[in-house]
């Protein structure tokens, strides 16, 4: 199944190469003194802490993971088959109503959601239950093992950005970078864009492909009541990000080390470490999809560090890591920057459904990943809708096929067959 059909169609049209991605996850609570497990190497990672083999609470969590899949499927089917039911339940309310254990929440649910949306623990439970659980189902996150092979861009996001730029130039489009926009004004004549060099340019229409708070800032006092209400509903979390080589920001037990490593405690915000030696260029897609929002980090500086990392990935004495929101400044830090990510709250879900109140009014169109789950596919779909709306054309948005969640038996069979065939395939990968 293609989870991002529009993105894949774009990549195919541009000739973008893809490669398998490692999406394994580990959880390490209280600096490894609490629960610690991983998913990269099957049971050896899952039971990285050998005492968990005899820990009834850990086994209860595993049973609840299976129960969670069934509860989510039933919940989503109920809401999708009854559109009149109000979808304002939070994730916390859903979990409480089902009676899940504290360990399930702290050692599984919060790490999974917090890792994807870079949100602190208390914000995760404020997520829209329908939105988040739909995402988990659509992305096959309802099971620990036997997930489909994820793919990623072979030469990171900068590669397809360059491809898009080349395509636009071939069509006669003018692309201007490094031109900071201070404000946007709208009147009967059109949209006036005021730039940092005091220049003013008049256009028939305008598409604001920026974060919702930035769109409001650019509109300033001219923002309408509806624009303030809709765009103001979208909230963001901001993360301090470090490229470093401090292995203390990984799980204490090396058997648990995975591509994504959730570090948390019961009383602090969470942090997340990406293991570059496993992810290599793949992680660059993640950290470059949103340019630094503060600081003096430039793309060329990041490219230089990228070359440094790529030449030394085989050196294992100190791993190359990227950590979001560490409790302290990591040792051997190479670079620091800051960026933001939209929060999939109940208010955001409601606001995205009310976009028609402001879309195209005053000749201004809005788009961004915040109108969906906050990822590439969401940004692309929103951009396609805005661009075609500005041109007065209909928009053909591809949708996902019916979501098929494999049973426990199907998942086990798939895992067994995949591992069996892996012994006989020396070139390529088992999809």
TrEMBL record:
Question: What are the Amine oxidase domain coordinates in residue numbering?
Answer: 4-389
Superkingdom of source = Eukaryota
Q: GO molecular function: any one? A: methyltransferase activity
Coiled-coil intervals, chain numbering: none
Per the record, the GO terms for biological process are:
methylation
Q: Does the keyword Methyltransferase apply?
A: yes
UniProt keyword terms in alphabetical order: Methyltransferase, Transferase
Against PANTHER family, the record matches this protein to:
AMINE OXIDASE DOMAIN-CONTAINING PROTEIN, PROTOPORPHYRINOGEN OXIDASE
Name of this protein: Tuberculostearic acid methyltransferase UfaA1-like
Look up and give the organism this protein is from. Answer: Gossypium australe
């Amino acid at each position: 199944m293609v989870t991002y059909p529009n993105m894949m169609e774009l990549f195919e049209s541009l000739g973008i190469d893809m490669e398998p991605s490692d999406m394994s996850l580990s959880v390490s609570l209280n600096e490894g003194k609490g629960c610690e497990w991983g998913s990269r190497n099957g049971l050896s990672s899952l039971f990285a802490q050998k005492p968990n083999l005899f820990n009834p609470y850990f086994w209860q969590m595993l049973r609840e993971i299976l129960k969670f899949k069934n509860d989510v499927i039933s919940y989503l089917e109920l809401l999708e088959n009854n559109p009149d039911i109000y979808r304002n339940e939070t994730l916390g309310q859903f979990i409480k109503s089902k009676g899940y254990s504290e360990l399930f929440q702290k050692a599984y649910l919060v790490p999974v959601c917090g890792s994807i949306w870079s949100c602190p623990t208390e914000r995760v439970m404020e997520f829209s239950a329908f939105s988040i659980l739909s995402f988990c189902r659509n992305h096959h996150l309802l099971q620990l093992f036997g997930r489909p092979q994820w793919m990623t861009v072979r030469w990171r996001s900068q590669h397809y950005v360059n491809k898009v730029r080349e395509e636009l130039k071939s069509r006669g489009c003018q692309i201007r970078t490094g031109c900071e926009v201070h404000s946007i004004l709208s009147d009967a004549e059109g949209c006036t864009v005021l730039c940092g060099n005091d220049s003013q340019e008049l256009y028939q229409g305008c598409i604001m492909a920026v974060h919702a708070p930035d769109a409001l800032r650019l509109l300033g006092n001219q923002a309408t009541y509806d624009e303030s209400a809709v765009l103001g509903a979208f909230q963001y979390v901001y993360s301090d990000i470090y490229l470093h080589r401090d292995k203390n920001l990984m799980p204490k037990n090396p058997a648990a080390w995975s591509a994504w490593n959730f570090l948390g405690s019961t009383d602090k915000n969470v942090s997340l470490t990406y293991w570059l030696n496993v992810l290599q260029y793949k992680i660059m897609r993640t950290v470059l999809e949103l340019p630094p929002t503060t600081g003096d980090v430039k793309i060329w500086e990041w490219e230089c560090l990228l070359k440094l990392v790529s030449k030394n990935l085989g050196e294992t004495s100190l791993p190359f890591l990227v950590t979001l929101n560490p409790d302290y400044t990591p040792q051997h830090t190479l670079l620091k920057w800051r960026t933001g990510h939209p929060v999939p709250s109940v208010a955001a879900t409601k606001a995205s459904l009310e976009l028609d109140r402001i879309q195209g009014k005053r000749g201004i169109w809005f788009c961004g990943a915040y109108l969906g789950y906050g990822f590439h596919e969401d940004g692309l779909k929103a951009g396609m809708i805005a661009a075609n709306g500005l041109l007065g054309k209909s928009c053909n948005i591809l949708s996902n096929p019916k979501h098929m969640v494999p049973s426990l038996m199907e998942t086990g069979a798939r895992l067994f067959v995949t591992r069996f065939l892996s012994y006989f395939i020396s070139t390529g990968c088992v999809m």
